[in-house]
Design goal:
By secondary structure, the protein is mainly alpha-helical. It folds into two domains: 75 residues, no CATH class; 187 residues, MetI-like fold, CATH 1.10.3720.10. 79% of the residues lie in helices and 0% in strands. Helix 6 crosses helix 8 and helix 7 packs across helix 8. The two termini are 14 Å apart.
């Protein structure tokens, strides 16, 4: 128990400098982007005097290092800034939009795991069989077709041609669970397809290695049903690399959600951030990217902790 707690404490300590470095990277990238946020905020009412006043209010007339320190201090106090257009606090915008992005990402990963793990196990149990060849085709499709292309094709087929599902828009789950799932079904499929390819191939490779172990041969010799051997015994020991891939790919899903949200006009953090880039809305872009990056780091941290819990050798090696 102490070894596990120590491992978790070390991983938490390592996450702090990573978050700090990410904040520097996000701030630098935004300020290196061409364009003037003051001019974008004032629009047609732009005037030198008004621009100078707004630039002072935003702190853009200070040295870049001081701007970063001011921004970081505000972030640590929970103040992410406000929208330059609507003057609405970013914390309020995130409370409205972050649930959409998280729901899309979690549903996509859940669908990918539900499909990929049984598919990978079945392919490993019968190498070269029908399921294994099917998995090869799914992998090629998932890796080759970008999610925004797949999303567009799904809209053309199921919304424009067959008229089975709505092409765009969003309905909150609290308002209507059934309509919520109907509107999210196509973007979830578009986002999950690539993850099915990665997770199923990882499951297949890990299961093939595990099924060749001596203890699996012993279990088979005892007459235990093959399905029980695969799912109850082999999959448990093959789960470590699968968990790792799921954690890493969750971060990839967050990046893909930015594109998919724009394809399907979903009011998530990704669409908000992309819209803010076009208007040079610094606070929105900085806050949106930082939140997505923080979620990515948190998911990878949880994955590392689970990796150490499931594999004691990792904990022992880092003592």
């Amino acid at each position: 128990m102490q070894g596990t707690l120590g491992y978790i404490a070390r991983r938490l300590a390592l996450a702090v400098p990573v978050l700090l470095a990410m904040s520097v990277f996000v701030f630098a990238i935004i300020h290196l982007t061409p364009g003037d946020p003051v001019r974008a905020a004032l629009g047609l009412s732009y005037a030198p005097t008004a621009a100078a006043t707004l630039r002072h209010q935003m702190g853009l007339d200070q040295p870049i290092v001081q701007q970063y320190l001011n921004w970081l201090g505000n972030v640590l106090r929970g103040n992410l800034g406000q929208d330059l257009i609507s003057h609405q606090p970013l914390s309020e915008l995130l409370s409205q939009r972050l649930p959409v992005t998280l729901e899309l990402t979690v549903l996509s990963m859940g669908l990918a795991v539900i499909i990929a793990v049984p598919l990978g196990v079945a392919a490993a149990r019968h190498p070269g069989g029908i399921v294994d060849r099917l998995l090869g085709g799914i992998t090629l499709l998932g890796i080759s077709v970008p999610d925004f292309v797949l999303g567009t094709l799904l809209i053309l087929l199921f919304a424009a041609t067959l008229n089975w599902l709505p092409p765009q828009d969003f309905v909150p789950f609290t308002q209507s669970p059934s309509d919520n799932l109907r509107h999210l079904l196509l973007p979830v499929i578009a986002l999950a397809m690539a993850e099915v390819a990665y997770i199923s191939q990882t499951t297949r490779a890990s299961m093939l290695e595990t099924l060749n172990q001596d203890y699996i041969t012993f279990l088979r010799a005892k007459g235990i049903p093959e399905r029980t051997v695969a799912y109850k015994h082999a999959l448990r020991n093959a789960a470590v690399p699968v968990i790792t891939v799921i954690g890493v790919q969750f971060g990839t899903l967050l990046g893909g959600a930015i594109v998919v949200e724009n394809v399907f006009s979903l009011p998530g953090v990704g669409k908000m951030t992309v819209d803010a880039v076009s208007t040079r809305n610094y606070p929105i872009v900085q806050g949106g990217v930082l939140v997505i990056a923080a979620i990515f780091i948190a998911v990878n941290l949880i994955t590392d902790i689970l990796y150490g819990v499931f594999n004691p050798r990792i904990r022992e090696g880092q003592r």
